[in-house]
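Worked example 2:
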Amino acid sequence: MAEVAAESLVVEGHLADEQQYLTFIMSGEEYGVDILAVQEIRGWEAPTLIPNSPPFIRGVINLRGTIVPIMDLRLRFGLTEADYTATTVVIILKFDSDKGERVLGIVVDAVSDVYTIADTEARKPPELTEDENSDFIKGLVNVSEKMVILLDVEQLLDLHLQVLSEQVITD
């Protein structure tokens, strides 16, 4: 019985309380998203602009028949705008929810690494403001003497959809 319980804790070579995160760089800081939410990584290509969309929505792309909104995560997080370079990428995120499958592309400065992080290593972010921009921070973790900000993909996608629906209502 103990052998079965121990084996059930190991999933694809990792302990059940560990997750892999794809990390990326924005404005010199490193952020991470659950690698299971990453559908693909694409080089930057100009999307089709959508009139009256928020400034951080760069437009949409057609990804094999699926229309995917592209969000500049720098602008969404209130960081300074940067020129798109050869290292700029779009990370396509996909999440299944009770409202169906959601897909969103996020523009980031560069992809960094993949880390395996135990759930117990992540620390809650300090509550600095009651701003919605901190709702999608899942936690903070130290990796190789640097701080990585872990993002909650579901909250990020929910926030994106909430902002878009508010934009439609106010227009």
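Residues 2-170 form a domain with the OB fold (Dihydrolipoamide Acetyltransferase, E2P) fold (CATH 2.40.50.180). The longest strand covers residues 18-26.
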